[in-house]
Amino acid sequence: MRNYKLIGLVLLTLFLSCSDDFLEKNPLDQVSSETFWKSEADAHTALVGVYNSMQASIFSVTRYNLDCLTDNGHNRTNANQVMSISRGDLLPATGGIVNSIYNDAYKGISACNIFLKNITDIEMNASVREQYIAEVKFIRAWYYFNLQQFFGDVVIYDTPPTVEESKIKQSSSQNVLEFIHSDLDDAIASLPNTPYTGNIVKNTALALKAKVHLHNKEWSQAADLTSQIMISGTTSLSDDFTGLFITSGQEANPDEILFSVKFLAPDNYHSYQIYVGWWSEPNPRQELVDIYESVDGISISQSPLYNPLSPFENRDPRLLQTIQVEPWFIDGNEIQQETTNTGYRIQKGIDKNIGPLGYDTLSDMDIIHLRFADVLLMYAEAQNEAVGPDQSVYNAINAVRSRSNMPDLPVQLSKDEMRERIRLERRVELAFEGHHYLDLKRWGVIEDALSKVDEPGLGIGGLKFKSHHYNWPFPQSEIDRNPELDQKDGY
């Protein structure tokens, strides 16, 4: 599905249209429900439309903003109200990222439900239909997992509702999780055990199901599912960490990627290089820089290799592969024209072959949501929690470290010590990929972590996470639309 078709975007518009008049006009030059859903080609086009729904900004190009809610990053422009939320201003009327996650997830779910309703009426190859349904059920489960992680109890729609049918009470978080697992189980049963190339495959669904279990402390289940991926023979770590996040590297070494939102310039592109590279909207924090070890595998507070006068030398290579510590110049032109509030900019995902950056820059690297390194670290965490730091735990985490030429962990770590090393490794390996905020929440340490951050302009204690922030509020616009909803406690 690398080459997204323009017609898929037209279909997405059809999916999300609420206008009966639009469908009744049935013009010859537009797609409508009266002329569509007739052939296998229509089903494929509709599938592309469902995939395209994931290109919504918060689920793709600006996913890095989730790290700017943490001790990893700072959004210097307050884009999408990220700075305000990180400072404790989280209300039903906050808007920004709160509305984006909620509304864009339900738009995607609507696309999934319309697809699942209509594909059963198409005369097409039965096995192809079964696979398409499995792919869409995965995507629906992924959207609901995002909703459950941020909002907890949410409304479940498994078919396209009318306006009045949409006004119902939310389901419990546990019921949402059961719905997610049901969709993922259906998907796993029908998806091929092949390498991921853009369409959802079995390992994609196994990885998400493992993550759902991990986030609910169901350690044995998470360890079992991730081990299935590890022995599947269809995925592996890339040799090139930097290349994972730029177009040329993704095309050359795709084996690590298990799930991503895909783009292809010039017709289908995003603005990552502008937001991150030119505007420097997200800024890494000193707190993140300091947790990267020296090359001997020892923290900078204890390593004899660390020199505070040359703080970026002899460090874990992922530090400079993730964080820019000084401006870049291409042909004498500085590609970052904007400032940074922390002294740092993001390197991960910035392509030095593109420049000078400007409003016409077309970014099309895929935005990764699941990759094999994450699977290995999920396995290490789950297995350590389930049985302790056995050799398989060491093997998994050391494989991730070895890719970056970092030494193996010391032997004979206790369970608690291994837990801390795994959490540190996740933070280093997955920085600015949208995992850290949810990791801090599920570990129950987010209030403490944020309280220690030196926030630009506010100092220590400038970030606030209150106990009721574990579940975000329903957007006020949704409360107004659906009076059956019960607003979250604390709002």
TrEMBL record:
The keyword Signal applies. Residues 275-491 form the RagB/SusD domain. It holds the Pfam family SusD_RagB. Its main location: membrane. Keywords: Cell outer membrane, Membrane, Signal. GO terms for cellular component: cell outer membrane. It is found in: Cell outer membrane. Residues 21-214 form the SusD-like N-terminal domain. Belongs to the SusD family. This is Membrane protein. It comes from Arenibacter certesii.
